[in-house]
Amino acid sequence: MAVWEDFEIECTEYLNKTFGKYANFVHQGGSDSTVPDILVKTNKGTSFYIDAKHCPAQCGQFVLLPDISTNTFEYSRLNSTRINVYAQKIMNHMNNYFEDFKEAGTGGKEIVLDDGDDTFAKWIISTYKSNGVKYFITNDYVILPVDDFQRHFNVSAKYRIKRSGSSNTGRARIVEIINYIRSHGYAISDTRTVGDKLFVRSQVALHNKRFIYQGYEYMFSLRDNEFEIRKLSNTFNANVIFSINKKRASGLTREQFAKEL
User: Fold this and answer.
1) Which tens digit of pLDDT belongs to each residue from 81-92?
2) How many domains does the chain have?
3) In terms of residue numbers, what domain contains 216?
């Protein structure tokens, strides 16, 4: 299991152990980057999200497509978030240096703005808040309000080619996928579906195990005491990717966070 995946699970366990009398914390991030990491359901009946970031870490991204005919970048319709003023500012800068950025490749090209740290941080704050995220939890289980992001993190951005994320199995494929994994030696003890999602149980360590079915790659992804089967994308997109590192700043005390619940 990757460090960031371990960390998401460890953070969920820590939050339930430390603040369980105030709220229920549910891990739901994993390989699906469009879903915040930890759902918080308070005893008061309210809910919000916490995102786990084991620094140094990536912290959001959006797809830009180069248009050779106009020498400009297009904000892709594949993006899960709408374009905002901060993304537009980044695009304007990249358009001014189109030739430099269009061939960024998998190595990527750093995006350097005079006020880059401020612009990148505000994109992160705006985007995560629009997804219902109120806090980050980072190294040593430090809990930080999203609104205070700039006080706690240094941020940079790079434009590079990256494989797209994953998606649900899909209703039409669920029965076929179950039959396939049972017939190919995967020790599955039980299955369940939620809409177009497929979950399986196994005593075997299947996390991150992959298989090919009808030209698509699928992966077992650990979700608490079961595995979700995710369909991996076959496409590669050019992304603006934000990376963060934690500054030496303290977060909320346990008492302060408990009051927020």
Assistant:
1) 889 999 999 999
2) 1
3) 166-232
Quick one: which of 255, 257, 239, 252 has its CA closest to 60? 239
State the pLDDT confidence band at 192, using cuts at 50, 70 and 90: very high
The answer to whether residues 169 and 230 touch, using CB atoms and an 8 Å cutoff, is yes
User: Could you give the C-alpha distances from 103 to 60, 109, 183, 231, in angstroms and in order?
Assistant: 21, 9, 44, 28
User: How do residues 195-233 score in pLDDT, each as one tens digit?
Assistant: 999 999 999 989 888 888 887 878 899 988 899 999 887
Determine, yes or no, domain membership for 27.
no
Q: Taking the model in full, what pTM does it have? A: 0.73
In a domain, 219, yes or no: yes
Task: Count other C-beta atoms under 10 Å from residue 195's C-beta.
Answer: 8
